[in-house]
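#onboarding

Welcome to the new folks! Below is a worked example of what a typical request in this channel looks like: someone posts a single protein sequence, and someone else replies with the predicted structure as tokens. Don't worry about understanding the tokens yet, we'll cover that in week two.

Example request:
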Amino acid sequence: MDQGGDRKQALIEAVRTLARERLSGARAAAALPFIDYFFGHVAPRDMVDEDPEDLFGAAIALWQFGAERSPDTAKIRAYQPSFESDGWRSPRAVIEIVNDDMPFLVDSVTTALGEMDLAAHLVIHPIVPLRRADGAVTVAAPDDGQARAESFMHIQISAPAGTTDLAAVEARLTAVLADVRAAVTDWRAMRAKMQELATETAEHPPKVAGLNSADISEIAAFLGWLADDHFTFLGARDYHFVGRGKQARIEVGEMPGLGLLRDQDVAIFDDMRALGSLPDTVRAYLLAPRLLSVMKADRRATVHRPAHLDVIIVQRFDAAGKVVGETRFIGLFTSVAYNTRPAEIPFLRRKVARIGDAAGLVPNSHDHKALVNILETYPRDELFQGEVENLCAIAVGIMHLQERRQTALFVRRDGLGRFVSCLIYAPRDRFTTALRERFAEILAAGFGGQAAAYYIQMSDAVLARLHLIITTPDPASANPDITALEARLVEASRAWIDKLHVAAVAAQGEGAGNRLLARYGRAFPTVYRENMAIPATLLDIAAMENLDGDRGLALSLFRPVGAEPETLHIKLYHQAAPVPLSDILPMIENMGLKALSEIPYAITPADGDAVWIHEFVTTLARPMTGDLAARRGDFQDALAAVWHGDMEDDGFNGLILAAGLSWPEVSVLRAYARYLRQAGFTFSLSYMQETLNRHPTLAGLLIDYFRARFDPDLAPAAERSERLATLSAAMESGLENVVNLDEDRILRRFLNTMTSSLRTNFFQHDAAGTGRKPYFAVKLDSQALEGLPAPRPWVEIWVCAPTVEGVHLRGGAVARGGLRWSDRREDFRTEVLGLMKAQMVKNAVIVPVGSKGGFVVKRPPADRAARQAAGVAAYQTFIRGLLDLTDNWVDGAAVAPPRTLRHDDDDPYLVVAADKGTASFSDIANAVAAEYDFWLGDGFASGGSVGYDHKKMAITARGAWESVKRHFRERGHDIQSQDFTVVGCGDMSGDVFGNGMLLSRHIRLVAAFNHQHIFIDPTPDAATGWRERQRLFELPGSSWADYDAALISPGGGVFERAAKAIDLSPEIRAALGLEATRLTPAEVITAILAAEVDLLWFGGIGTYVRGDAESDAAVGDRANDGVRVGASQVRAQVIGEGANLGVTQQGRVDFARAGGGINTDAIDNSAGVDCSDHEVNIKILLGAAVAAGDLTAIQRDRLLADMTDEVADLVLRDNYDQTQALTLMADAAAARLDDHQALIRALERGPLKLDRRLEGLPDEEEMAARRAAGAGLTRPELAVLLAYAKMDLFDRLKASDLPDDDALADDLVAYFPDRLNAQFGDLIPRHRLGREIIATSVTNALMNRLGADAVRNLSARSGAGDDEVARAFLVARAVFDLPGLWRAVETLDNQVPAAIQTEMLRAIQDLVADGTLWFLRHAPRPLDIAGLTAAYGPGLAALRAHTAHLPASAAATAAIARLTEAGVPAELAEAVTAIDVLTAGCDITRLATDKNRPVPAVATVYAETGGRFALGWLRARAEALPADTPWQAQAARQLVDGLFANHAALTAQILEASAAPPTDKPHVDAITGLTAWSAPRAAAIARVDQTLADLGAVEAPDLAMLTVAHAQIQALLTQPAATV
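Example response:
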């Protein structure tokens, strides 16, 4: 027994076991034998895959169903078993039948099911011996004579829909089984009747005209032969012919009907009983004496097989030989009757012999043998039914055909006029299904009927035979010209190749026609030849001749003659392989057609590969404007473009036919629609497609408008404007008829987007100069676009192609930022917009403002290498799209791109950089730029092979590390000399993470993760970990899996993120603060992010920390929703964002408010973009040197490399200064909250349109809450504010003449490395971006040193413009020699407490702010930077040198002592403390000049005056006044300003009273002068002294008290000396 048999037996035993378990003892005993019968003859393959439960249910259900059955009655049930209702289930509907065993059950039932289109998938039919008694049923022994065999049927069918259909199945089978029972029951009686007639005919032969005794004997033998198992009897009935003329009728005889004819209403022939009303020919046929007739009934058999019933008619005669009745038998000839030679069948043998005699052929001659062969292979039913004369004529006609390749028709008419039997002979090699169907059509039309059945005989003979039965509803009119019919058949079967030859020669001439025939004569398959007319074939051949290459494709759109207007046919010609329907059908439907059918043809030329022709029958989905001829070319071009991937496949393509557009024009509308979706437009692409298709006229107007705006070949500008106005008016008029408001919005938005378009490459030529470019690019005025989400870029470029989409957003004319390979296909512009916003903030430190670009690969291959190649190709297309719309700079002037109409100003500055997915693409971008001879050369994309490699320089990580070092330094921790713990995101192969984790040898990396692995080192050793990380960093393509496990501390390891769970060691649980022993990888990452460590370092992609009130959905990084933590969960002291977007802005704010050290990603990782900016500007400078011949390209490249370290120092200086600026701003954040709030409001109103919500800045309510709590803005918020303030100031300075001031030459030079200045200093002033560099340098210097709100405050207090504030700052910076002082403080990093450094820097900040304000108030405008510096610089230098000789207050002395005790060098401590004096330095210097006194002398008088009247103490008290409102703060500032002014005025009066000329003892001179001046004012001075004494007794004098004191001192200035 094979495995299937073993499995079957095991399943049967399992079913038996279930029966014993589920059924009671007696019931089980009764069922078990039935189970064996049930499965006994089931094929193993039909049950080996079934569940024992289902098998048990099937068997027991049938057993129980058959337990009760009425005798001699079939019991039927059709149902869909289910557990709920039946206790078992089956995937298919089940029919159960229990019946007495009898013949024909299975084939009759399955035939009935087939006629109902229900397939029987499984039939189980055991015949079971049963005993039934007293309601009980048992399976008997096979040899039990008392048992009765019963049929049990289990049939599984495809479930019909609904219970009604199952009920219909039951009804149909009930009727069929009733027929089977009737036939089987009466079979013997019918056979006996036939035998009786045979005997009677033989023994008492009737007298029948035309028949001799031999004929009658043959008929009797035939009847006996039928009764001898050559006929399956299904019914019998006697008939009498009664009446005469029109009253004649046929009546059922006395003998009861048998079998299927028990019911008298069941007729054999329809409408034949009214004999008198029948046509004469039919009536004559029925009454003609012939004794025996063999015919076909009108109905099919329901028993045994579904053929038309055979009818045997035996006539009865009266004594006169008149037909008075007949006996009819219905049934089916057995197979023996069809397979036995006619010579061995009574009746037929005589008929054959008579045919031979009638043919007059010599016995055993060749023709006679041929005739016999024809009759032996003749359709047997025809031989039984046909008359000798007709059969003879047909047989002889067939014989005459011999082996000739010709078509012939032979017809026999049914005696009752119901049908004609047609035999058609045709050449076998031409006989096809199509030809058969064509023959049937011709004959059906000719006889006015229908083809009811056909039978085909194919042998090795030359001719094939087709036997067709054509019904004739109206016999009287079914009299066609047979010769004409045959001629039509002959024409239909004529060789197609012959027709082709004639047509080809006629069309091409004999030579060309013969060549085409040689190539294509046998190329076309039969189905093609059957379907296609010869003229169409010639067109197809022409199309195939023009195919080119493996990708060859040709198309033809046409409307067949006589077709409905909406019906169109498409022929598609394709080489090598058939076109998959799943590929082409969507294309056709998107072109505005509905495919109804398709026929493929494989054409195989004699000398080439196969060509496939696909013919599609389609109908228009929407009405087509214009005629087909005008649309055909565009349609064919468009479909070919879609097929080849040059155009996308979507509903926009319906505009080809609907609006009469070309496919490039449709691509324009598609590109705009895709942009609108990316720009956040409400409506879907599909809705926009539908709208344009519903309004094709307006779609056409949009394209007309686009062409009028940008086509360089159209009319001059004036006519163009007129044309645009006309089109706008037409568009507006058309929109008035658009009822649907949504559709109106869509169409208007298309128009707005086109009017906001500034440039396009649509009309530019490709590289060959002959065609259009395979992608569309358009430059858009983002400020003019409606509904654009904030923040709005300055401009943007949209690039769209079938393979790529990309957008480049720019914040200004000079902008830079990376281009990323995005994976967010649906909303990558949103992603890029967020990054541009961040880039704007990040770029505040460099010359260009922010920009960002992103692209998506629309059809990325699955293979990694292929996907990378596709990404590179998409990137190149994107770059080309950007450069297509960018001016070049040639010979000092901007040059527009060719064939480009510009609706904006010159725009030659475009630089890009690497980003996510494009880290290694810089050389690729520069190669594309070289194609365009772009003026920036390889400065177009920084970081290429000839440039600064950010990873090798570690510049981004080093810049972020400056932030980290400052955070820890301000917490008293020097991470470069003291160990600290770290967790992070990234791996050592990455730039930022890898470089960052090597920047200190004291890093103890506890845990890290990337997209593949989780690394955990619970108790790491700093030195060991650093060395292993360095090894991994140097190992190409390394991952955490490459980490030497032996170097990981106990309990740690590297774990796969793909694992289901990670078992946590005690050491890991301790390191991460966990209690669980097993977590998923996502849960472990969450624990790492929340670990209690010193630093959380982000060097990988993703957003992992959000605000506590933020949702993950709001973050916009779904990939990391499962691991992200809230800010309050982070237990690290410091977060370093080496990578972008590691923390949301709200997360940063929440973390900072909780005391954590954090800036923003824009601050932390700005070094990369800063380095790139330096690279580009250096390359621009050196490009001029190369162009002038002062430098070779090789020398340039070497010089770039040699300056790497110096460039890095310049960049890192910016990082240091920006983080220092944030520290100073944060230190005064609470006190400056009102100023910061005012700045935010101003920026909201200003050109940048600051959006608090987008930038994560507090609203007015939150500001009030913080003010009440005594809190200010956090570092992340201040970082945003600083960036916006820088951007705003940069724009204002660039627009002013400040960058043109020669006094700022040094600022321009300082931007570049010293080596560059030494070699090419003469080129620096002529730098293409010199003005922008100066504006950037001044902006950074001013904002970093004074804070974000300084310019606004100084402008408000002085009434000066921003450029004047900048000039004053530059003067103050120079005359106070502040760079040296700043450097002195900064060199104390990690040597003195950070708070001490901040204190000193704040003091310097106050000095430069006061100095700036002084020049704004006292110097003539416009401020002369060089002149003021020369005028005040020497005096202030002298003052600094003299401060040590001035009398020091107790507070100053104490301050110096405190600073030196903290580690500040004494000289620096004294210099910082002397700032109080330097604050008045400008007044002192001016007085010295005005009074022609030495600065030391004036300074001494100033100091003595201040001490005498406690002016310094009063100013300090005024500066310390609490300010609950901005007005109070302003009042306090005005009081301080007044005290300074009065101090200078008093000093001037005292100098006037001093002895002149001064002596060499300034202090003595000062005392003398003060005494002389005071003497006449003694009373007033006494009042001042009393007021000061009273104030001194008050712990915290208020504004009113200080104002009174100030007024009394001011009164001294106006007190006449003579009246004192």
